[in-house]
Specification:
The structure holds two protein chains of two kinds. By secondary structure, chain A is α+β, with helices and mostly antiparallel strands. Chain A has two domains: 207 residues, no CATH class; 168 residues, no CATH class. In chain A, 52% of the residues lie in helices and 15% in strands. Chain A is built from 17 helices and 13 strands. In chain A, the strands form two sheets. In chain A, strands 1, 3, 4, 5, 6, 7, 8, 9, 10, 12 and 13 form an eleven-stranded mixed β-sheet that branches. A two-stranded antiparallel sheet of chain A has the order 2-11. In chain A, a hairpin with a 6-residue loop joins strand 8 and strand 9. The longest helix of chain A has 33 residues. The two termini of chain A are 16 Å apart. In chain B, 32% of the residues lie in helices and 30% in strands. Chain B contains seven helices and ten strands. In chain B, strands 6-7-8-3-9-10 form a six-stranded mixed β-sheet. Chain B has a four-stranded antiparallel β-sheet with strand order 2-1-4-5, covered by helices on one side. Chain B is globular, with a radius of gyration of 17 Å. Classes of the chains: A alpha+beta, B alpha/beta. At the A-B interface, helix 3, helix 13, helix 14 and helix 17 of A face helix 2, helix 4 and helix 5 of B. The complex binds adenosine-5'-triphosphate (ATP) and magnesium ion. The site of adenosine-5'-triphosphate has 12 residues of chain B, from strand 1, strand 2 and helix 1.
Chain lengths: 429, 230
C-alpha cells in the first residue's frame, strides 16, 4: 500500500459532519486557494507540465498552510497600508492653493495667548496684505455633543469675505450673514451631517469661553478643502465676553505666493519688542505645527508598523520554511534527477513570492476597498475625513510583501543548497 | 565480455564524527560491464548504499577513483554532476519517492523537463516508459491513488525515461509484497537483458538475487564475494 499520503486532500465523506465540520468544508470549498490548485490542474492537463505549473501545484498543495501564508502577508499589508494612510491623514493637512496664500499670525508665546485687537490697523497697512480678519477659535460643543469634531471661529464677516479664495456660497446669502450679528456661515458637510437648512439655529456650549452661542444659519459654503467649519461674528463673541479687546489670531491673505515670506517677516517685525509679539506663518505651516502638538504621530505609526510587519514576517518566514522542510526529501529526489540548485532556488523563490504576491493583492486591495468605500467621516464622527489610500502607500505595501516573499525564501534556499542528496533522502517524511 | 561501464579503483569512504572515524568503504576495486545486472548484498551497515550513491554521483568518495563510461565523476562540479546524472543515471529507491502532487505521467516527465525535448516528444517518451512497466493506462493517477507496487513501477519508468546507461536501485522491493516485488524484479531484469541497461541493485532478499547476472557481497566496507551467475 501507499506508505505515506502526504497532504492529500481527499474530500471528507459528507455524512456525519458536525456544524464545525461543515464550516471547515465550506471554507475549503470557497477558499480561492483551492480554485487556484484546480485551475493549475486544468492548465497542466491542457498544456502539459512546466516549471510554472509545478510551482503552483506545490504552492497550494497544503491548503491550510498556503492560506495561512497568504493571510499573514495580507494582514500585514492591510495593516501597513492602514497605518500609513492614518499617518498621512494626521500629518499632511489637505492641500489647497489658498493655503499658501493665507497667513496666520498668532501670539509668539503660545497659541492660547490672545492678541490685542488694536493690532489690526497695523497689520492692515503692511504691504502685500490683501485682506485680514480676526480669527478666534471658539471650540464649543454642538448641541449636547461631548466632543464636537468641527471647529467654530469668530471672524469679521466683511473682512473674512476677502479671505475666501476657493469654494462658493452654495445656499443662503453672505450679505445676510454680514448683516445679522447672530447668524453664522456654515460648511456644507456640516449642514448635511446634521440635516440643517438655512434659517435653522445652531447652539454651541463654550469650552474655552464661559459663554454659549445661539446662531441662525445665514449662508452655506462648499468646495473648500474642508467644508465643515462654522463662522460667526467676532462682535458677538466680544459682546458675550465683555469686550476684552483681544482676538485669537489674525488671518490674512497675501497678494501672491511669492510675497508671502516678505509679508511674514514684516508682520513679525511690526510687533517686535511690543507687549504682544507675533509669530506669523502660512496656513499650511500653521496646520503642521498644530499636528506636532498631537505628539509624534509619525514615529508612533512607524514603530507600530515595524512591529506588526516584523511579527507577521516571522509567521510568513516560518510557514514558508516549514513548507520547504517538509519537502526536503522530494527536493533531494529532484536533485538526484538532475535538477540543480539554481532550479530548486527558483522553485522556492517563485513559490514564496507567488504566495506573498497573492497576499499583497488581497491585503492591499482589501484595505483600499474598505477605506475607499466606507464612509469614515461618518463613522469616526468627522475625525477622519479623507483617509485616502494613495498609490504611494500601496506601493509601500507591495514592497513590504515582496520583501517578505524574498526573505521567506532565503532560509529554505540556504538549507536546500547545503543539503546533499543522500542527506535529503535520509530525512523521513 | 563487454567494455566495463563502471571502473572502481581503491575506493574508500570515511565518515568523521568528531574523534570517531567510520570506514564505510575500504579500498574497494571493481568493474561492471555494460548490460550486467549486479546484485549488491551484505549485512546492514556494510556500505552497500554508500557504494551505490558514489557510483550514481550523489555522494563523493574520500579517496580512490570512480569512472563511469570513462568519465571521472570526482572531477565534475555540482552542476556538471547534476547534468551527468540527468543523462546517465536512473534512480529507484526503497520508498518510491514520487512527488505526491503530480500524476504518474508528470512524475515520469520530471527528468525530461531538464532536456531540450519538446512537449510531444516528452509525451511519447513518458508513454513508452509507462507502457514498459505495464502502467500505460495509469498515467493520470496520483501516487496516493496507486498501490505500492504500482508506485515503484512508476519510479522505474521515471528512472528509465531519459534512456540512461545505468540504473541504480536501493532495496527497490523492500516495501513491497512478494507479488509486486516479483513484478519489479522482472522489469529490472528485462531492462538489463533486453534493453542492454546496466543495473545495480542493493537488496537483502536472497530470492531477489537470482534475478541478477552477478552477485557482489560487501562486508564491513570490503568486497567479500563476487559471483558471476550463468
Ligand atoms: N552520514 C553519515 N555519517 C556517519 N556515518 C555514516 C553516514 N552515512 C553512513 N554512515 C555509516 O557508513 C556505514 C555504511 O552505511 P550504508 O548506509 O552504506 O550501509 P548499508 O549497507 O546500506 O546498510 P543498510 O543495509 O542498513 O541500508 C554504516 O556504518 C553507517 O553507519
Ligand atoms: Mg542502505
Amino acid at each position: 500500500m501507499s506508505e505515506a499520503r502526504p497532504e492529500s486532500q481527499s474530500a471528507v465523506p459528507s455524512e456525519g459532519r458536525s456544524v464545525g465540520g461543515w464550516f471547515l468544508y465550506a471554507l475549503g470549498f470557497y477558499n480561492p486557494i483551492s480554485w487556484i490548485g484546480w485551475l493549475a490542474r486544468v492548465w497542466v492537463r491542457q498544456f502539459g507540465l512546466g516549471p510554472f505549473s509545478f510551482v503552483i501545484l506545490n504552492a497550494v498543495r497544503n491548503q491550510r498552510r498556503a492560506t495561512l501564508t497568504v493571510l499573514s502577508v495580507a494582514s500585514s499589508c492591510a495593516l501597513l497600508v492602514t497605518l500609513l494612510t492614518l499617518q498621512r491623514e494626521l500629518t499632511v493637512p489637505p492641500e489647497s492653493e489658498g493655503a499658501s496664500l493665507r497667513i496666520i499670525a498668532r501670539n509668539k508665546v503660545s497659541l492660547a495667548q490672545p492678541l490685542p485687537a488694536k493690532q489690526l490697523s497695523i497689520v492692515e497697512r503692511i504691504p502685500g496684505v490683501v485682506a485680514v480678519s480676526p480669527f478666534t477659535f471658539f471650540g464649543g460643543n454642538y448641541k449636547g455633543e461631548e466632543m464636537t469634531s468641527f471647529a467654530q471661529f469668530a471672524v469679521d464677516p466683511a473682512r473674512f469675505r476677502g479671505l475666501l479664495v476657493e469654494g462658493r456660497i452654495s445656499d443662503g446669502s453672505y450679505d445676510d450673514f454680514i448683516r445679522d450679528r447672530n447668524s453664522c456661515f456654515v460648511g456644507a458637510d456640516t449642514m448635511k451631517r446634521y440635516h440643517l437648512k438655512i434659517g435653522d439655529r445652531m447652539k454651541f456650549t463654550g469650552t474655552f469661553y464661559p459663554v454659549d452661542l445661539d446662531l441662525r444659519i445665514a449662508a452655506v459654503f462648499q468646495g473648500t478643502v474642508d467644508d465643515r467649519g462654522v463662522f460667526f461674528h467676532h462682535k458677538l463673541l466680544d459682546e458675550l465676553t465683555g469686550d476684552p479687546g483681544t482676538v485669537g489670531t489674525w488671518y490674512l491673505r497675501v497678494a501672491s505666493a511669492e510675497v508671502s515670506n516678505d509679508v511674514i517677516a514684516r508682520v513679525n517685525k511690526a510687533f517686535e519688542n511690543s507687549s504682544a509679539e507675533v509669530r506669523a506663518e502660512t496656513e499650511r505651516a500653521f496646520q503642521m505645527g498644530f499636528i506636532s502638538m498631537l505628539g509624534n504621530v509619525k514615529v508612533l505609526t512607524l514603530s507600530i508598523s515595524a512591529v506588526v510587519v516584523f511579527t507577521l514576517m516571522l509567521v510568513t518566514v516560518s510557514t514558508m520554511s516549514m513548507a520547504i522542510r517538509e519537502r526536503f526529501r522530494e527536493l533531494a529526489i529532484l536533485k538526484a534527477l538532475g535538477y540543480r540548485r539554481r532550479e530548486l532556488f527558483s522553485f522556492i523563490l517563485a513559490e514564496s513570492f507567488g504566495l506573498a504576491a497573492l497576499g499583497a493583492v488581497v491585503g492591499i486591495g482589501g484595505a483600499w476597498a474598505v477605506w475607499t468605500f466606507v464612509d469614515l467621516q461618518r463613522l469616526t464622527n468627522g475625525f477622519l475625513v479623507y483617509f485616502e489610500v494613495t498609490v504611494r502607500t500601496m506601493a509601500w505595501g507591495a514592497a513590504v510583501a515582496a520583501t517578505l516573499g524574498i526573505l521567506a525564501a532565503i532560509g529554505p534556499s540556504v538549507a536546500v543548497a547545503r543539503m546533499s542528496v543522500v542527506e535529503g533522502l535520509r530525512t523521513l517524511d | 565480455m563487454e567494455a566495463p561501464i563502471v571502473v572502481i579503483r581503491d575506493l574508500s569512504k570515511i565518515y568523521r564524527q568528531g574523534e570517531v572515524q567510520v570506514t564505510a568503504l575500504n579500498r574497494v576495486s571493481l568493474q561492471i560491464s555494460a548490460g550486467e545486472f549486479v546484485v549488491l548484498m551484505g549485512p546492514s551497515g556494510s556500505g552497500k548504499s554508500t557504494l551505490l550513491h558514489i557510483i550514481a554521483g550523489i555522494d563523493r568518495a574520500s579517496s580512490g577513483e570512480v569512472r563511469v563510461q570513462g568519465i571521472n565523476v570526482a572531477n565534475l562540479d555540482e552542476s556538471q554532476l547534476a547534468d551527468w546524472r540527468n543523462q546517465n543515471v536512473g534512480f529507484v529507491f526503497q520508498s518510491f519517492n514520487l512527488i505526491p502532487v503530480l500524476t504518474a505521467h508528470e512524475n515520469v516527465e520530471l527528468p525530461l523537463l531538464l532536456t531540450a525535448l519538446g512537449r510531444r516528444e516528452r509525451r511519447q517518451q513518458v508513454d513508452l516508459a509507462l507502457n514498459l512497466v505495464g502502467l500505460g493506462d495509469r498515467g493520470h493517477h496520483r501516487p496516493d491513488q496507486m498501490s505500492g507496487g504500482q508506485q515503484q513501477r512508476v519510479a522505474i519508468a521515471r528512472a528509465l525515461v531519459t534512456d540512461p546507461a545505468l540504473i541504480v536501485a536501493d532495496e527497490p522491493t523492500g516495501n513491497l509484497d512478494a507479488r509486486s516485488a516479483h513484478d519489479v524484479l522482472g522489469i529490472l531484469q528485462s531492462l538489463s537483458r533486453d534493453a542492454g541497461k546496466t543495473v545495480l541493485m542493493v537488496t537483502h532478499d536472497p530470492k531477489a538475487a537470482v534475478f541478477g547476472t552477478r552477485e557482489l557481497h560487501l562486508e564491513k566496507g570490503e568486497l567479500a564475494r563476487d559471483l558471476v551467475q550463468e
